[in-house]
Amino acid sequence: MTTISRPCGEIAVRGAFDLAAAARFLTGFAPAGQPEAEPGALRVAFALEREWTPVGAVLRQRSPGEVAVEVHGPAEHTEAVVAQARRMCSLDVDGTAFAAAGVRDPLVALLQGLHPGLRPVLFASPYEAACWAVLSHRIWMTQAVRLRRRLTERHGVEVDVGGSMLRSFPAPAVLAELEYLPGLAGPKMQRLRGIAEAASEGMLDAATLRAMPAEEALKQLQLLPGIGRFSAELILIRGAGHPDVFPRSETRLHEIMREAYHVPDAGVAELAEIAEAWAPFRSWVSFLFRVEGEARMRESR
User: What would the pLDDT profile of 166-185 be if each residue is shown by its tens digit?
Assistant: First the structure.
């Protein structure tokens, strides 16, 4: 697909943000399938939520308080592309008060110092996050990454994003009709089709999920095929971009917290109580704990 317009938009940044840090994270985040980070820019291609038109964007940080967005897609979708790119970088949240979480919790302050300006980098939509949850369920990460890449290469749409050809994830209408993907078990294929149908019906709309009380949104997401509590948290936090949810099913995060806070026997309720000090940015702090924990694990290998 050749995009037909390149208008620009601007995103006002409220609070600390470093686009270069976001680009480095996305490069190392295997499910994203992102090419090597480009100095000064972040290039993405995705299916535009609700319309599901394949589009692209190039983000560049002009100053600490502004990110410019070069949009590649139909002119009538410019505002929607900018809005989705804003959410993908967690720039739709006023982060001015995030520093205060570090004042309340010295460990959070340490994480903020180790990863200055890094906010959660999200899937393009709750729909894509839900598909990843289905693909990655009970298999190795490397296997899930290969499946996602195969799905995108075979059924996604190529988008010219400022001279770089990137593929957007397949739209729900495409997945809803898909009968077979090499390497993907039949039950997962059925679940993917169910996710696609739910997205087409508006059940995975980011704004709707964000507007609901978190527990209510999590319960609704668990009605989807193949989606349990862990996957529902992934969709709400890393798909819809809810900034203030403590992941109660993310055991790796809990292990990192027990070690960091020296509470080896703490249960989930006690860890959730510790996380109260992070509000209203519990998702953000959880993300930083995971990023740092995984970095230390790589260093120890």
Answer: 999 999 999 999 999 999 98
Mean pLDDT of the chain, nearest integer: 93
Amino acid at 141: M
Alpha-carbon separation of residue 283 from 120, 134, 246, 273, 301 (angstroms) = 8, 21, 6, 14, 27
The DSSP annotation for 146-174 comes to HHHHHHHHHHSEEEEETTEEEEEPPPHHH
Please give the single-letter amino acid code of residue 154.
R
Q: What DSSP letter does each residue of 10-76 carry, written as one string?
A: EEE--S---HHHHHHHHHH-GGG---SPBTTBEEEEEEPTTT--EEEEEEEEEETTEEEEEEES-GG
Residues 33 and 3: their CA atoms lie apart, in Å, by: 21
Residue for token digits 């936090």?
237
Over range 44-59, report the average pLDDT: 96
Residue for token pair 């205060």: 100
Residues 183, 147: contact at Cβ < 8 Å?
Answer: yes
State CA 7 to chain mean position distance: 25
Distant-in-sequence, close-in-space partners of 138: CB < 8 Å, separation ≥ 6: none
pLDDT of 85 higher than 60:
yes
Q: How far apart are CA 229 and CA 225, in angstroms?
A: 12
CA-wise closest residue to 132 among 202, 234, 263: 234
Number of H helices, E strands in the chain: 14, 6
pLDDT of residue 5: 52
pTM of the model: 0.93
Residues in the chain: 301
